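User: Some background: our group keeps a shared notebook of sequences we're curious about, and every so often someone picks one and asks for a predicted structure to add to the entry. Today it's my turn. The entry only has the sequence so far, pasted here. Could you supply the structure so I can complete it?
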Amino acid sequence: MNSEIYFSTGDFANLCNVSKQTLFYYDKINLLEPIYKDQNGFRYYSITQCDTMFLIESLKEMETPLKEIKIFINNTNPESMIDLFKKKSEQISKKIDNLKSIQNSIEKKITLTKEAQQQDFSEIVVQNSDIEYLYVSHQLVYDDEDYNKKVIADFYHTSMDTLNEKYAIGVILRKDDFNLSTENNFKHLFVRTEYTKELPLVKKDKCQDVVAYHIGEYEKIYQTFDKVKTFINNHQLEIIDKIYCEPVYDRIAVRDASQYVTKITVPVKEAERSK
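Assistant: Of course. Here's the predicted structure to add to the notebook entry:
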């Protein structure tokens, strides 16, 4: 025993950043046994067992059952170690990608919310916009709920899994529908994204946009539509084609639906004057 340094259960637990109860349990199931027990039953561990403990805790972090970890440790060889580590490395890479995706979505939501805090939601303004790329869903139809559910599900899966967009999904109305003071008349879902060849994107050309904000439940957004249409007519403008509505303050930012804020973007051009 004098040829090697041994650690008590408490010291080894501190060294490996685990609890003493964890070591007792691992000993009980024969996953990691003390290298030595004295005549009083006190457990002692070797510094060389730190590697095994690190492996156990790392595999646990990857949601590997203790039963599988035990089988691996008891039957390990260079080939099985390489095979397991390759599989776990791939899982780690996927997990990192997923966490980066979540982080990007959170950061984007922070940016959008901070920008919104600087806006006067009571104003309707004209702004210049640059070229943008949109991922747009298939058209929703009026009388086919099953089809619409599939369209929405496909769009959300692509937006979240491929584009990593989780908090900025909006809806598109056509010009004709914008002139109808009714609710639930949107035809497409959309999300703004960076250009990619992986998906069929819609290019929104550089133009002037009338931008307004609706405060309150989305079902009453047509009330703000009426104000936007009045603004457009008073400024001798004409709607180009589509209208875009995006959540600014939603259930994530506020609890009361009366405080929801929806951004309305209407691409416009100067109206043709009658001769």
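Suggested note for the entry: The chain has a mean pLDDT of 89. The radius of gyration is 30 Å.
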